[in-house]
Amino acid sequence: MLDTKLITQLRDLTGAGIGDCREALFESENDINKAVEFLRKKGSVKAAKKSERQTKEGVIAIAGKIGKIAISGLACETDFVSRNQDFVDTVGKFSEYLLENGEENFKAWAESKIKDELIMKIGENIQLSEFRVFEGKVIGTYLHSNKKVAAAIVLSGGTVELATDLAMQIAAMSPKYIKPEDIPAEVIEKEKEIYQEQLKTEGKPQAMWEKIIPGKLNKYYEDVCLIKQTFIKDDKKKIEDLIAQSGQGIEVLVFHRFQI
Fold first, then answer.
1. 11-19: long-range contacts (C-beta < 8 A, 24 or more apart)?
2. CATH architecture, domain 180-248
């Protein structure tokens, strides 16, 4: 005879239907662990259905050692799960695995763990968010208190303190490029087209356009280029000034912003 408490326990653990839980417990002779294993194949079907649900919550974690850091994130459905310490610790373990094993096979490993273990255990749609490994002489990272926004940056020189400030800047201000020269030509041309249409609509004489558009482009650079942004900790400084004051020849080599 099947224990209704076991059925409930198995259903809460796996998210499987009552009929599937009954069958699994019968086949496993009421061994809950064997029943979970029995449901994995059916659980994969369940996971496919859950994968249609929106994942607007989640957690990002950072793991690091000298000269190298790894960042990964897992998205989930509810804030309740994202605040659960077990889930937070799990994301931390994903980043530690990424740090030690690299990016090449991480996606396949992570998606297998999510499908075979996490979705069954948690009962929500879980998705692998962005993941990346950074290596370099000077690395800075920032993780927001909600663990949903993070940033990393690699510098050619300078200090970790500078790099950390820049990572915070990236998290807060979402730059797309390091410097204006990095912006693709087609993006610049599209911006100019937009400005021309704006000026035409405003009734500005075409003879003035060549004087006005460079100013608009400079404002665009301040929005999308890291080094042209105003420093969030001191609005009298640009990021390029902050870097220059920190030493000669310091360059931003790469940066990335993560968000769930």
1. 12/123, 13/120, 13/121, 13/123, 14/39, 14/43, 14/46, 14/120, 14/121, 14/123, 15/43, 15/46, 15/50, 15/119, 15/120, 15/123, 16/42, 16/43, 16/46
2. Orthogonal Bundle (1.10)
